[in-house]
Each structure stands twice: as C-alpha cells, then as structure tokens.
Amino acid sequence: MSLSAFLSGRRLLVVEDDWFVAAALVQSLEAEGAEILGPAPSVARALRALEEAEPAPDGAVLDINLGGERVYPVAEALRARGVPFVFVTGYDPGAVPEAHAAAPVLSKPVTMAAVAKALFEDGGG
Amino acid sequence: MSPGAADHRMRGLVQRHDWRATPLGPLPGWQASLKAVTDLILDNPLPMIVLWGDDLTQIYNDGYRVIMGDKHPQGLGQATRACWPEVWDFAGPIYEAVLAGASRSYEHQNLLLRRNGEMREAWFDLTYSPLRDDGGRIAGVLVTVVEVTAQHRAETGLSDSEARLRALITASAEITYRMSPDWTEMWSLEGKGFIPDATATKTSWLDEYIFAEDQAQVGGAIDAAIRDKAVFELEHRVRRLDGSVGWTLSRAVPILDARGEIAEWFGAASDITARKETQIRLEEIELRQRVLIEGMPQLVWRSDVDGDWLWVSPQWEAYTGRPAEELLGRGWTASLHPGDHARVAAAWKRAQSDGLLDIAVRIRHAPDDDARWCQTRALPVNAPDGTVLEWVGTSTDIHELRTLQDAQAVMVAELQHRTRNLITVVASLARQTARTAPEPQAFADAFGQRLQALSRVQGLLARSDIEPITLRKLLTLEFDALGPKAAQSRIGMSGPRVKLRRTSVQTLALALHELATNALKHGALAQEEGRLRVSWTLGAEGGGDRRLRIEWAETGVTVDGAAKTRVGYGRELIERALPYSSGARTTFDLREDGLLCLLELPLHKRKHGEVAG
Fold first, then answer.
1. pLDDT at B3 (0 to 100)
2. pLDDT grade, residue B594 (50/70/90)?
3. Which chain A residues contact residue B418 at CB under 8 A?
4. Do A124 and A59 touch, CB atoms closer than 8 A?
5. Could you tell me which of A23, A27, A37 has the C-alpha nearest to residue A83?
6. What is the pLDDT of residues B351-363, one digit of tens each?
7. Strand partners, B145
8. Which ipTM score applies to this complex?
9. Of A109, B161, B252, B453, whose Cβ has the fewest other Cβ atoms within 10 Å?
10. Where along chain A do its domains lie?
C-alpha cells in the first residue's frame, strides 16, 4: 500500500492563499480520494471553515504565509480540536515559531506521499 | 726686573775692584770720559756693559749682572773675548764695526749662553754704540742688552698654535670660512670641493653661495648672531661647485677684540646633503603615509602586546565622537557594543597564537548615535628577533555591506519562494490548457501564449520597484501582444491612473490575457463590426477600502450558440481565481452583442506586506 492511500476518504482542510497553488493541491488530493474542506485563502476564512466542519476534519494542510498574515492561529485552533496538520512553505523551513516547532514542515511543491506521511504516519503537528 | 737690578751693588764692586791688574789701570787714573760713562751705566736700570780699550775690558751694571749669570763676578774687569768665547763669532765682527765708528742694533737675537753650568738658548734685543776717549777717539763699545727670552717664547708659542690650527683646518673635511664683523665681506673660505673657494675677499658671497629664495632665512640668522654676538648656527641650502643644490650645517663663532666688539667671524660648515636628502625623503614618506592614513575611510590604531592602545588615527575621534586620549590604553573598549566585549577578548587571545586578528565588531558611531558593524583586522609588528613589538590594526565600516547581505538573504528567500510559486502556476496553466486543447498543436499554441503572458507580467513585476505597474500599462502590453491582426482602432481605453497591487497583478494579467485572446478569436476583435471598450473607475466602499472597478465591454459581436456554453480558462480565472486570491467581485456576462465583464478589485495594502504564500 502506497503512502498516499492513507489519503483516501480523508476529510482535509486546505489553507492556501494562492489560487493556482490551492487549485493544484486540491486537484492532487482529490485524485488520491480525499475530500476537501475549503480551500481557504485567509486565517479568517480558514477558522470559519473549521468551525463549520462537523465532525472535525481528519487533517489539514497549512500554507504558512497567507498574503502577509501567518497561519498560526489556524494551527492553534486545529491543535485545540486534536486535528493533525502539516505546514507547507515556499520559504526554506526553519522559521516556524517554537510553539509549532514539533509540527512537520514541507517545502513547496509538495508530493501527496509526503503530505500523507506527515499527517498520518508521523502524526502531524 | 730681577731682584738685584736696583740695589746698586755693582757701584760698590766697581769702586772696590783692583783695576791695576787690568789694562785700564787704577781707577783714579781713568780718563774722564771712561769715568763718566761708567758712572752713567751704574745708575741706569737697563742692562748695560762698557767694553773699553784694546782688550775690550768689561764694566757692567746691576741690570747686566743678571745676563752675566755665573760669569759674574769674575767677568768684571775681564777681557770680553775671554769671558764670552761662545758668542765671539757673533759679537767679534760687531765690535770691529763699532770700533770703526758704526752702531748696531738687533732684535730678538738668539744666542747660546752658558748659564748655571749649562748651555741655554736666550733671546736679546741688543744695541752697540761707540765710546770716545778724552781725545775724541773711539776707545770702547757700549752695549745695552734687554733679554726678551720670555717674550720670544710667548710669541713663538702663539705662532705654533696658529700653525696647528692651520694644519687642523687643512686636515679637516669641514669647510672653513672667515667673515667680516658685519658679514658683508667674506675674507676667506676653503670649500673642500663642496662649494667654491674664496681666496680673496668676496663681497658678493651671498648671491654666489645662497639661492635667492633662501637669502632671507640665512640673513635673518646672521643678523640675530651679530645682534647677540652669539654663535651662528643654521642648516641651509648652498649652491655647490657644479651649481646643484647642496645642504650644509654651518656654525660660526664671533671673535671679539679687547673692547668686546666683533673683530671677525670664524666658521666651519659640513656637507650634510646626503643626510638632508634622506631626511627630506623620510619626511615625504611620512607625510604621504599620514595623508594616506588620515585620508582613508579605515580607522587605524596601534596597540601594545597587551591590547592597550598607543595611538589612533584622527578618524577615530570623528567616528566615536571621543577625543584620542579617551580611546588610548583600554579606553577604546568603551566604544565597543557591550555584546561584543567577550568575543573581542577571545579573538584577541586567539590572535596571539594566530598572528592575526580578524573580527567583525559593533562600534558606537557618534554621528548616528548607533553602533555600526566594523571589520577589524590587525597584524603584529615583529622585531628582527621575532618578538612582537606592537600591533597595527584597521577597522573598516562594513555596516552597509552587512545590511545589504541581510537584504540579499531576504531577497534570495523571496526569489526562491516566487520561483516555486511560478512553477506551480505554470503547472496549473499546463493542466488547464490540456483540459481544453487535447490536440498537441493546439496545446502548444495556447500554452505558449499563456507562458508569454506570464512572462510579460513577470517582467513588469521585476521592474515594479522602479516603475509602478498601472492598469493601462498592463492592458496596453496585452493588446500589443495580440499582434497586427488586432485592429487597435476598435479598442478604446479610459480611466484614471491606477497603480495595481503586486499580489493581484499576476492573476489579473492572466485573466486579461484570456479575455483579449478570446476577443481576438471569437469576439469584438474577430468581427468587422465589433468594438471593445475597457473603462475603469476608482470608488470607495462602505468599509472604506478603495476598489477598482473595471468594465470590459464588447459590442457589435454576433455571438454563436457554442460560445455561450463554453467555460473557458479566462472565465475560470475571472469567476474563481480573482475572487479567491484578491477578494475581487466579478461578473462574466455573455450578452447578445458581446461580452460584458465587470471586475471589482480592492486596492488597499494588506497589513503584512504583499508577499503571497
């Protein structure tokens, strides 16, 4: 069983401000059988999507930089609900604050296998 | 005068002497003339002797007794030849001449005399004159003698020292000269091959030896020496034998006469041309070095082996705003950033073994009232035996460089980010193109055009720091890219100058590209009657954010049924991508006579800059 098979049937929140990146990610995740919440381009939209999600999503893929604002409030909300998440960033990893230092960070562009491993094998953030 | 000269002992001796034993006979029988002259000399203080008769019998006075030495007393009444055999060669011919009527005088006559048992050299001033008897015939000789041995010795001693001085002057390498009391005349000068000799008095010596531009300085020193009757001493330039410039150290002493006035000047001068030229070269090197050190932007310092500073270049004062004396010793550490003290101490310790100090430190910069990064490098100055004498260091302000490096790091990260993002966009374009253009050729055409549109907007973004991206520029670029097929006369644009947000430019450009391409293929630019008008306005919304409202209106177009149902990539960008990324509100309305598309974009800046994730 390939790692990406973990994604099949999962409900995943995607937070990514760039439409092209979001569209590509959504398309790739859907191709692996995942169900997508969002995508959300901002912290406010992501928190709203999270609130409306019932039951809680199985995992989340979070772009760190959302048009200048940071995704960390979303990460805290996910942690509060016990939802595993993975950061993705176009920058080199290493700039994540201490509170989230344990969360996995992936560099763009990400592969589905890497997302699956980070969320469901390593346990996410 | 000798002690016996004035005691008149000789008068008694002459009176008591037994003259019967001499050719003169008993005293009472002497001729009146002999008695008279004897009487005369015995009262005279000058040394005198009377030689009378054929034997030249001697009668002498107290003064002469000294000259007789140990020939006295037996010399009284003795024949002079018997008494003075040692000087007969000299005296004999004189007596002969005087007895013949002449008189003679001699100065500083040198005679060898037997005195106190020894032959001694002595000097005399002598006069010889004839004495006449009562009959008027010459019968004797009167000799007056003044011994000048002591005076002679003093004079010859003086001329000996003169001779020695002359020898010294000749032997010496020094140039010597004699000047008149007021220096208007040069009496003599021995130039020793360095400068011309003066064998006769020269009145034009100043012009001959001293360059015109130096005459005032030399003249000033001379005037001061004359005024103070003090030693003249000056280093000055001279015109050498060959006319070239030489340097001399010249000293002259005034020689004073009995009244204390200057009689002449005696001087000596040495050729210091080589030393002076070396000195001038060294001074030039030193000056150049100082200009270099004080002119360069680096801060220069010297330190002893313990890190106590000995010297700082003037730039330090300007940089730190503290006087040099405050920086010396350990004072410089007070201008270091407190956070760097430990690092500097460690670096200094390492430098002792490495032989090099090289560290970036923060130094307080007074004009900014802030610390700035400086690269400090220092090397030890070694003695020939290898021991370290001191350290010489420079501190270079590299603050701008470091700031630029930091900015560059941010830029590289940003570039990396944009590149990754761009690849995602390209991948997305490829997917979307493949969905609608399954034929390879159609894919290649459409994908190529979209890549070009993307490339154009990247070009605008790269220059956007210098040249803001306006909506009109973006539109013009897209319409120009349509090529000659697009009739520009059918396109109208109107609206105020609007700067676009960098984050929304890329998606907006791609959307406009799709709209323009569609207009050329199927819409207003494809049909004779078609017209395209793009107009835009700026307005404020309830929330206070400024919004840009763009209206893309195509008219005079016959829309075919198939186009109505086609959901192109342009439409997807407009209806989905722009609202998603930019918070735009859009409508896409394909009407009977052409497309009407409305785009409303917020123009406010986002809080945390414009970088999209």
1. 43
2. confident
3. 90
4. yes
5. A37
6. 988 889 999 999 9
7. B126
8. 0.82
9. B161
10. 3-121
Picking from B417, B507, B610, the nearest residue to A90 by CB comes out as B417
Say yes or no: B509 contacts chain A, CB-CB below 8 A: no
- pLDDT, average across residues B456-467: 85
The answer to whether the beta carbons of residues B424 and B449 sit under 8 Å apart is no
Residues of A in contact with B610 (CB under 8 A): 67-68
Nearest to B503 among A22, A27, A67 (CB): A67
Does a cis peptide bond (omega within 30 degrees of 0) precede residue A55?
A: yes
Chosen for mutation from B410, B421, B424 (greatest number of chain A CBs closer than 10 Å) is B424
User: Closest approach of chain B CAs to the CA of A55, in angstroms?
Assistant: 25
- Number of Cβ within 10 Å of residue B467's Cβ equals 10
Which of B571, B581, B601, B604 is the mutation pick for testing A, counting most A CBs within 10 A?
Answer: B581
CA gap B285, B291 in Å, rounded: 10
Closest approach of B607 to chain A, Cα-based (Å): 7
Q: How many helices (H) and strands (E) does chain B have?
A: 19, 20
Order of all β-strands in the sheet with B57-60: B57-60, B48-52, B138-147, B118-132, B104-115
Q: What is the pLDDT of residues B550-569, one digit of tens each?
A: 999 988 888 776 565 555 77
pLDDT digits (tens, 9 = 90+) for B271-301: 999 999 999 899 998 888 888 888 888 889 9
Average pLDDT score, chain B: 86
Give the residue carrying structure tokens 């790739």: A28
Domains of chain B: 3-153 (3.30.450.20), 172-277 (3.30.450.20), 296-396 (3.30.450.20), 434-602 (3.30.565.10)
Q: Which one-letter amino acid corresponds to residue B75?
A: G
- Answer yes or no: is pLDDT of A60 > 80: yes
Asked whether B110 and B121 are in contact (CB, 8 A), the reply is: yes
Angstrom distance (rounded) from CA A50 to CA B578: 23
DSSP H helices, B6-126, are: 9-16, 32-43, 62-68, 80-83, 88-99
Q: Which residues of B touch A63 (CB under 8 A)?
A: 613
Give residue B565's pLDDT. Answer: 55
Testing the interface with B: which of A18, A63, A69, A111 to mutate, by most B Cβ within 10 A?
A18
Chain A interface includes B227 (CB < 8 A): no
Among the partner residues B418, B424, B611, nearest to A20 by beta-carbon distance: B424
Q: Quick check: B518 and B563 in contact, CB under 8 A?
A: no
Return the pLDDT at B169: 76
What size, in residues, is chain B? 613
By C-alpha distance, the chain A residue nearest B574 is A19
Instruction: Report residue A85 CA to chain centroid gap.
Output: 5
Options 2.60.120.970, 3.40.350.10, 3.40.50.2300, 3.40.50.11540; CATH for A3-121 is: 3.40.50.2300
Residue A78: is it exposed, middle or buried by C-beta count within 10 angstroms (0-12/13-18/19+)? Answer: buried
CA–chain centroid gap for A101, Å, is 16
Task: Report the gap between the CA of B575 and the closest CA in chain A (Å).
Answer: 12
Place of tokens 């398309």: A27
> pLDDT tens-digit profile of B238-265?
999 999 999 999 999 998 888 888 999 9
Token pair 């940071």 is at which residue?
A70
- Most B CBs within 10 A among A20, A28, A107, A110, hence the mutation to make, goes to A20
Separation CA A76–CA B168 (nearest Å): 107
Q: Quick one: pLDDT at residue B527?
A: 81
pLDDT band at B611 (very low <50, low <70, confident <90, very high): very low
Tell if the CB–CB gap between B612 and A67 is shorter than 8 Å.
Answer: yes
Tracing tokens 């004839």 back to the chain, one arrives at B130
- CA nearest B46: which of B124, B157, B120, B118? B124
B246's CB contacts (< 8 A; 6+ apart) are: B194, B195, B237, B238, B239, B240, B271, B273
